[in-house]
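Notes from the 1:1 (GR / supervisor)

We went over the backlog. Supervisor wanted to see one worked example end to end before approving the batch request, so GR pasted a single chain during the call. The sequence is below; no edits were made to it. Supervisor asked that the structure be written out right there so they could see what the output format looks like.
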Amino acid sequence: MKVRRKIIEIDEQLCDGCGLCVPSCAEGAIQVVDGKARLVAEKFCDGLGACLGECPNGALRIVEREAEDFDEQAVEAHLETKKPLPAAGEQALPCGCPSVQVQSLPGGETRKPRGDAGTRTAPAQIPSSLANWPVQIALVPATAPFLKGADLLVVADCVGIAYPNVHTNLLPGKVVLMGCPKLDNAEMYVQKFVEIFKTAGIKSVTTVMMEVPCCSGLLMILKKALSDSGKKIPLEEVVVGIRGDVVQAGGQKGPARSARG
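Structure output shown during the call:
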């Protein structure tokens, strides 16, 4: 039944599909579909606007119009269908995409390599050291349990392709977040890191960038976030050349102990 009530409205022209509004909606009423945030169903939205403050582009607003009435039972059934497979220590985001389910991956640095059927696996294949999921900055909530007291590794997207020793020299013992300072929303990144630095008790930050001008924005984002958060957290810089060698680490030219190339 349709009633006149308050409900969320999403401006597709302003929405860039960052997904920050998704975890803030406890009812799971918003999902990113075809690169845009969309209202899954009117009956899932309670109209309270918990998602409004999460949008860096102002694409969300509350309007009053004829809409299907809010249905709490339907919301509960909807959320049940979106739950990931249960695992100890996991925190599920309220959207159904498995790529954004918050997970701590046990034993990331010691897991054995896993070959795929029909493929040739080299005898010395390096096992994954990834210890958290998701890894994209825009998808990780500041409340993710794996961020608590973590040594944070902030990596530019291209590093994973250019630098061959990511899993042996960079990832072990660290929580990783990655993004592109040129293509993504820098201000959104700043605000996300401010929130992380204020709440997660981060012990250290290592940023790994490519030796290209646009990539230096990642370091500036982190420095501004540290300044705005008022936190004093050690920040180390690693720069990877376009041929995959470490050209600067810890402010010194040449490879560092933590990132030998």
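Supervisor's comment: The chain has two domains: 2-81, 102-110+128-259.
Batch request approved.
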